[in-house]
UniProtKB/TrEMBL annotation:
It holds the Pfam family Hydrolase. Keywords: Hydrolase, Magnesium. It comes from Subtercola boreus. This is Haloacid dehalogenase. GO terms for molecular function: hydrolase activity. PANTHER family: N-ACYLNEURAMINATE-9-PHOSPHATASE.
Length: 241
């Protein structure tokens, strides 16, 4: 019998686990307001936007925020690409938007595992992580705009595994969405942690909470849990792919 795998690499999403997803929301709103202004319309109705955003957060799959915003506020879902492109121009992670539990978490992992970023982000996120002192901890830079693959496509995950030199069973992915983080990572055989903030639902269902190996509200204490609880025993179907 082969030795049981142990966790050798920790991959981390950025929006939600590391930086506040409100940075993304602010960029989407700024872009949508600007496109509406060009059409002679007033700014996006904030309460209506929040209601749509909360619906997307609750769903965790199948509903695109930018498609919904384009349909609701720009008159047609076909303007999703336009909204997407302008959002990219405004998307940044300003100083002060790093969650306070990230640095203690990364320092608790340092020297024990490879640490990787695995995120759908612009290249500028690298400078944000440098500014906030996290770059020295990061061994693998799986930034979609740099690598050329986006979650949930398996290519970004397999790229990160290869870059870290570990098998899927020796890696854990930490993210705050089921559709682009937990499900694609689990399908490849990685362990999964679901961080319940930002784009995660305010009130996750029992069925949603059953999907990741670990679900947490903060990163406090997570390093110890990764080493003691993962990789979790899986059913045959969970590692089928
Ligand atoms: Mg995220």
């Amino acid at each position: 019998m082969a030795a049981a795998p142990s966790i050798q690499a920790v991959f981390c999403d950025v929006g939600g686990p590391i930086y506040d997803d409100e940075n993304f929301v602010a960029a989407v709103l700024r872009a949508a307001d600007e496109l509406r202004a060009a059409d002679g319309l007033g700014p996006v109705d904030r309460p209506r936007f929040r209601s749509i955003y909360d619906g997307v957060r609750a769903e965790q799959g199948g509903v695109s925020l930018r498609a919904s915003i384009a349909r609701e506020f720009l008159g047609s879902e076909s303007r999703k690409r336009e909204l997407h492109d302008l959002t990219r121009d405004y998307w940044a992670h300003p100083a002060g938007t790093l969650y306070a539990d990230v640095m203690p978490f990364f320092s608790a992992l340092a020297g024990r595992v490879k640490i990787g970023i695995l995120a759908n982000q612009e290249e500028s996120v690298i400078r944000s992580l440098e500014r906030d002192g996290l770059a020295p901890y990061i061994d693998v830079w799986g930034v979609s705009a740099v690598v050329g693959f986006e979650k949930p496509s398996p290519e970004l995950f397999t790229w990160a595994l290869r870059a870290a030199g570990v098998a899927a069973s020796e890696a854990v992915h930490i993210g705050n969405r089921l559709d682009t983080d937990v499900r694609p990572a689990a399908a490849l055989g990685l362990s999964t942690v679901w961080v319940l903030r930002g784009e995660a639902p305010t009130s996750p269902t029992a069925a949603q909470l059953a999907e990741p190996d670990i679900a947490v509200w903060t990163l406090d204490g997570l390093a110890d849990r990764i080493f003691t609880e993962l990789p979790a025993a899986r059913t045959a179907s969970a590692v089928a792919s």
